[in-house]
Amino acid sequence: MGIVNIDxxxxxxxxxxxxxxxxxxxxxxxxxxxxxxxxxxxxxxPFTEIMARELSSxxxxxxAPAALDS
Length: 70
Fold this sequence. Notes:
This protein has three helices and no strands.
């Protein structure tokens, strides 16, 4: 494990987002790094497709969206 130096503003953003997503600051940084790597290595896929593939490979199935009342 190593230390990554980031600027203060990015650290503040990590702190704020980590509260919303119920992750530690380190876990949020790791998530952003992983997602960034996946997006860079799969530039033709939209974010939603990348996340759907990751969830599927982890054995997670999302429920179908509820029908909208018209």
